[in-house]
Amino acid sequence: MNRQQSIALVIAAANLLLMLLFPPFDYIGLKHGNIPTFDGFYFAFGSHAGRVVNIDFLTLEVIVVLVNAAIAWLLLRERPLGRRAPGGNRYQRSVLGLVALNLVLIVLFPPFENYVAVSQAALPSFEAFYFVFGDNSQRQLVMPILYLEFIAVLVNGAILWLLLKDRGPERLSADEIRQLAEKVRGSRRDG
Q1: Does residue 2 carry a pLDDT above 80?
Q2: Which of 53, 57, 97, 145 could be 111's S-S partner, Cβ–Cβ 3.0 to 4.6 Å?
């Protein structure tokens, strides 16, 4: 492990600690018909009447940090002399960076719905994407859409990473190898 990788791991561990100390909470009140509405991030060991930890959102936050740490680990590996970068070609590294950025944006701007729509609809509805640190006291996270976004980004990123993979050396037939060797011998004699 090189210095950059250890720094990435320390940053990931600090993020995990911060997320676990200040998890996302939902407010469950009579005013909202006992429907949990997103209330914000509070200290985990504090007293929070009428609030419960939103385990689904906390799980997604932890997964995003772990996936981004794995991406950083891949991108920050040292390149052996005379070889290509082990993280893939520059297009593959760009895909990894875009996946990390998309995952962070998904967590920062999750899908919300108004609590009134929740109480009147049998299926979850979607209102809009709002900044997670804004006033969302009248809204509930739409976890099925958030999970779908998360899965779509990971699957699309994996497919793109595979599609942009460098092709290996082409297989040459025995005749082609012989011709190539004769060419090399002929150029050495001439030079």
Answers
A1: yes
A2: 145
